[in-house]
Each structure stands twice: as C-alpha cells, then as structure tokens.
What we know:
Order of helices and strands: EEHHHHEEEHEHEHEH
Strand order of the largest sheet: 7-6-5-8
Helix content: 40-55%
Largest sheet: 4 strands, parallel
Shape: globular
Number of strands: 8
Number of helices: 8
Amino acid sequence: MSPQIHTEAINPATGESLGKIPQNAIEDIQEAVKRIRIAQAEWSRISFSERGHYLRKMQRHLVEHGEEYAAIISSDNGKTLPDAYMTEISAVIISFDYYIKHTARVLRTRRVKGSHIFGLFTRNRLQHVPMGVIGIISPWNYPLAIPMHEILMALMSGNGLLYKAASETQMVGQIIQKIIDAGELPQDLFIQVNVPGRLAGDAFLEAGIDKLFLLAASRLAKSLWPRLPKH
C-alpha cells in the first residue's frame, strides 16, 4: 500500500508550516460526483426559502468565528489581518444576505412575450432549472470570498458542489468546510477534494460535472476553455 500524499500549507510571510492536507486520488473525484448527483436530486426539490434556512446557519457560524478565520486566512494567504477580515470575511457575510434575499426573484418562472405575429397565439414561459453538479476550482488570492460567492449561488439555485481549494491556501479550504458543516446540508451535497492544480481541471470534466468555475487566469484556464460544457 502506497503512503498517503499530502499538500503542506506554508505561511508565505514566515515559511512556517501550518499543516498537511491529504490529497485525493482521481478515482475519488469520480466517486464524489456520483454521490453529489444523488444528493442534488433531492436538494433541487426544496424551495428557495428552505435552502435559505441552511445558508443562514452557515452565515451565523461565519459571524461567530470571523476574527478566528481572518487570522487563518492571513497566515495561509499572506494578506494583512485587516485586509483578510474586510475583503474576505465581511464580503462573504454580506453576500449571504444578497443571495438568500434575491434568488427567488431572479430565478422566478416568468412569462415571455412572443417576438412575432405567431406569438400572439402561444403562451411562453421561462423556467430556470438547476444544472446539477457544479465544480469549483478556487484561486489563492481571495481564497474565501471568490469561491463562497459561487458556492452560495450554486446552492441557492438547487445545485450540488464539487470543490477544490487552491493548493497554496488549503487551510482556507478547511474554513470553507467548517462553514458548510455548520449549515448541516444534506450529506454529499458538497464534497471537497484536494488534487494538484495541474490535474484538477481534466479530472473534474472527465468525472462528468455539469458546469465548471475555474476561478483563475492561467494557462490551465486557456487550455480548458474549448472543452468547457456549453450551456
């Protein structure tokens, strides 16, 4: 049996080791997508209001642990403590309110008027449906704020999530897991994996996700662009 491979988190300002996070095998990603898809099918059936109740618990947890988490972000990412609190913690706390309040309005079913004379004799409606399993590959520069916006949007619109934190900010990935756990979401609706960045994009796509948020401007993003699912 081969030894477990880990990603070591390093404080970029001091060189201090912050901890080691086990890496996943590619097969783990394929299995995770299958599990998420099952959980997402149930999640998609509940109302926006019910989804909001889960997110409120997540928000309360972040408020209660904001200073603690800002210190971890500062150590893991290298930004100053005030910057970590204002641009990461505060921004995410505010974003909870926005998505919980506005999702039902933005995604409501609405009537669409016909654009030509034959449309006078038809009734058209625009209905939004969940995409399914959303993959998120997070950047290191705003390791909490950027992925949490995508996570909240995906959850409120009825999707399940496969998430990978940046290899450089694995401790922030652990914060996100704690926030998710505080929401007491249905089991397997959100699964976090840790694989090297050079492998993550291909692995996510080949596992059959329905949409990919690749939150970085990099050669990897350019190489994956032609292969992204078209929706």
